[in-house]
Amino acid sequence: MTEAVMADGLTKVFGAFTAVDHLNLAIAKGEVVGFIGPNGAGKSTTIRMLCGLLRPSAGRATVAGFDVGREPEAVRAHIGYMSQKFSLYGNLTVRENLRFFGGLYLVPRADMEERMHTAITMAGLEGRETALVRTLAGGWKQRLALGCAILHRPPVLFLDEPTSGVEPQARRLFWELIHHLASDGVTILVSTHYMEEAEYCNRIALIDAGKLIASGSPGELRRHELGGILFELECSAAGAALEALRQAPDVIDAAIFGDKLHVLLRDASAASGLRPMLAGKGIEAASPRAIAPTLEDVFVQLVTRPRVPEAA
Q1: Ranges of residues in the chain whose predicted pLDDT is under 50
Q2: Which partner from 39, 76, 122, 126 sits 20 to 30 angstroms from 262, CA to CA?
């Protein structure tokens, strides 16, 4: 099956800085792929190249069958794009925003009312059609922005941290809309820094320092070999405990997760020594508990693990 999105050695260089470094990515029709990585990893730069907004420095990519370097206008005509920064016009009403963006996307006049109605229903804004957009809550704004982005029925949708700053319940409703679109065959690449949102994706692509360092379903990534046994530890003075654990000989890594610590050990037998070691430093701790790794554990381990330099 031909991929809806394909990147082969995609690279973007700004002066001496390589923002995206020979990235390979393939996304099938109707697939929802989560694009995960720390700030500055290259997620937004990659998305802008795939949208035809930035010309690649090297490599190539196609979106909906069009080459992003040679046919950027055709690419932009066949995609929807939504950024983390709310992009609609607060001084226009819901209907006025929809009509404006429908005109930008060259939606046929005969189809405009039906598509506007669909977008309003999808956003849950029935009865608020004449409300100024600046008066809407964040979740409604984002669902309306998504409705505007798909008025022209694009086969591919790029969402760049679309739920940033939106409350959890509104984020869940937004993801329901994403999967509804995917069930209709829309291909979606969505970047997010919420690990729980990554669980909603068919597949996750993890990028760091411009390189794709892991790809797979959420289940496949959770089964990723961390190189040790993971334990959860409750203790007082989490900062001091973290410093002490990272210096312990049997600890591969340790990180704060909420009000607990996750500690990666070379051997499970070393867990019994953690509590006495911390007590010797005046830190009270509960007994360590072996746990299955989460996506966030895998993310932290992959991003912080030293990389083997590539052969020249």
Answers
A1: 1, 311-312
A2: 39
